[in-house]
Amino acid sequence: MNMENIEFVLPSEIEKRSFEIITKELEDMGKIIPDEEAPVTKRVIHTSADFEYADTLAYSENAIKIARDMIKNGAHIVTDTNMAMAGINKKRLATYGGEVHCFMADESVAKEAKERGVTRATVSMERAAELNVPIIFAIGNAPTALISLYEMMEKGIYRPEFVIGVPVGFVNVVAAKELFLQSDVPYIINRGRKGGSNIAAAIVNALVYGL
Amino acid sequence: MNMENIEFVLPSEIEKRSFEIITKELEDMGKIIPDEEAPVTKRVIHTSADFEYADTLAYSENAIKIARDMIKNGAHIVTDTNMAMAGINKKRLATYGGEVHCFMADESVAKEAKERGVTRATVSMERAAELNVPIIFAIGNAPTALISLYEMMEKGIYRPEFVIGVPVGFVNVVAAKELFLQSDVPYIINRGRKGGSNIAAAIVNALVYGL
User: Fold this and answer.
1) pLDDT of res. B152
2) CB A179 within 8 A of CB A146
3) Catalytic (active-site) positions of A
4) Considering the domain boundaries, does residue B11 fall inside one?
């Protein structure tokens, strides 16, 4: 094994080629993805090399159009991880007026979470609810972020306009996603345990790139 | 489906509980992971909810000990993605004297890459080689970063001391990983297409947390 196995591909062509491979393999597997959702699902596969997402990503009715309209009108993104914030194309988002927020590293959030015996994600969502701007939530890590949003909704305190629900993990992740799959909040959610900050960022970027 | 399905777990217990579930499921699947490697492999599964990593993560001889000794002695981390840089516990790393570098967003890197018709990752690795400190490379995105390191090694310009090789994707990813699997550079590499910035960060953090 040496450099002979490395194929020369122009830097500008790598992403295009990757999407062609993904498209072909999805076809070979017989997986049909609606045209509107394909750019999002394919970008998630591009970022994970995991074709399982073709089966588990769930979109509420008109989710793509609703989210893109929000972004076009300047919606902000709130995420529960600094990694997702780092991965989101903030420059492109800013051309529509949007900003990305993550409150997880705020010292006051950590302090309040400790005092109340809740996660920082729980407090972060409460902070987001006070922002008073249209928000797309992009949850890539903490199921407690989804639970916090759901509880505020149940109590009539706050209602999220759009939820990208892709926390990853083993404790309450599946159940937290189900809360929103059963709600009437527009969503893009990955059923099951998988997800992550990279997936959250990929979904936001796919929405923005399609504008 | 409602809040009844949400289990109450103390925030401080969530990670511990997650690792218990991962350990049990690995046992149930009959997957044996050497004790030394288990904290790294399990943290990768924790960050991805993808048990396939138990089969595909490859460690060179004594990889964990070599990497941890380097960190203890103040090695720096160079990564090819800002997301991985955001995800690495820089505070803990700094207690040993280490810093994290990512040159991908440098304008001069972008400029040089464009002029030469190579990727920013290629140029970023060349910049890293000039740092003149012991480095653990944590490559979570670009196979061209691995190829760049390999080419410098072949030319006798630079030899990486340790490579975490977990780029993700469809173009040259498998072949770029093979270059290092066949070399005598100490490594932690995920065979195949999977990986990512979240995986790179998880591996670095597992190394640091074990010190």
Assistant:
1) 97
2) yes
3) 46
4) no
